[in-house]
């Protein structure tokens, strides 16, 4: 088990607050949080982060492959400490996996894999996104009250960083979609103008022509319009 420096916690909290969202994305922040938790929490051998999404639970970040395998075993069975923590927004402690009989014997698999105690903490990211920070230790009983208290403080800081990253990603994605929509509208209007000039027709008739070509050629309306504009500019 690694030695723990009490000053690590303050440094970790400060580091979470210094994350620059313009320089990374949500996945990058998730990975950073997992690595930082592994460095900060006493007794942690491996760390993972579970996210509950519409298509199901997924391990969004991890510091080791054993944590990933044990997470995925929970997803397959539909039960386990990380799922319980994420779903109930609670802290779930497993002091000795070999002696724990919850979740259809999942603890025995964890012990066999070398993870002898587990701590899963709710990690809320947004109104529609919830998850869990999962701390795996290679000895029983090492994730005691001091680690639990520190981990609960850690996830409060981490949740703020992740919520900000999630909001930043969502806003950036929306801006990209809006920009793409504006560009599509502009090129379609250009193509309509070309058709109106060539065929002496109304805007509605020009749009109907574009739509028919799009349907007949099984191409997106924007692509049809862009091709027409490009041909006209070349000619």
Structure description:
The structure is a single chain. With 235 residues, this protein is α+β, with helices and mostly antiparallel strands. The protein has two domains: 7-172, Beta-Lactamase (2-Layer Sandwich); 177-234, Arc Repressor Mutant, subunit A, CATH 1.10.10. It has helices spanning 7-17, 26-40, 65-77, 81-88, 106-112, 145-199, 203-217, 221-234, and strands spanning 46-53, 56-62, 91-94, 117-122, 130-137. A five-stranded antiparallel beta sheet has the order 2-1-5-4-3, sandwiched between helices. Helix 1 (7-17) runs antiparallel to helix 2 (26-40). The protein is elongated, with a radius of gyration of 26 Å.
Sum this structure up briefly.
This protein is α+β, with helices and mostly antiparallel strands and 235 residues long.
Comma- or semicolon-separated keywords:
235 residues, alpha+beta, Arc Repressor Mutant, subunit A, five-stranded antiparallel sheet, 5 strands, elongated
């Amino acid at each position: 088990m690694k030695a723990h420096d009490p000053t690590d916690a303050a440094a970790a909290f400060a580091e979470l607050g210094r994350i620059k969202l313009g320089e990374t994305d949500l996945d990058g922040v998730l990975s950073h949080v997992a690595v930082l938790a592994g460095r900060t929490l006493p007794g942690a051998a491996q760390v993972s982060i579970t996210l509950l999404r519409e298509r199901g639970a997924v391990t969004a970040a991890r510091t080791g492959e054993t944590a990933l395998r044990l997470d995925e075993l929970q997803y397959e069975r539909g039960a386990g400490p990380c799922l319980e923590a994420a779903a109930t927004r609670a802290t779930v402690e497993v002091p000795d996996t070999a002696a724990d009989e919850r979740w259809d014997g999942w603890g025995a698999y964890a012990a066999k894999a070398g993870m002898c105690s587990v701590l899963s903490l709710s990690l809320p990211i947004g109104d529609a996104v919830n998850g869990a920070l999962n701390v795996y230790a290679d000895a029983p009983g090492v994730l005691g009250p001091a680690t639990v208290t520190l981990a609960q403080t850690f996830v409060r800081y981490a949740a703020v960083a992740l919520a900000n990253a999630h909001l930043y990603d969502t806003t950036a994605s929306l801006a990209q979609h809006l920009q793409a929509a504006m560009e599509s509208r502009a090129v379609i209007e250009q193509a309509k103008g070309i058709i109106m000039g060539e065929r002496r027709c109304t805007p509605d008739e020009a749009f109907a022509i574009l739509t028919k070509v799009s349907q007949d050629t099984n191409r997106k309306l924007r692509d049809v319009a862009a091709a027409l504009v490009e041909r006209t500019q070349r000619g």
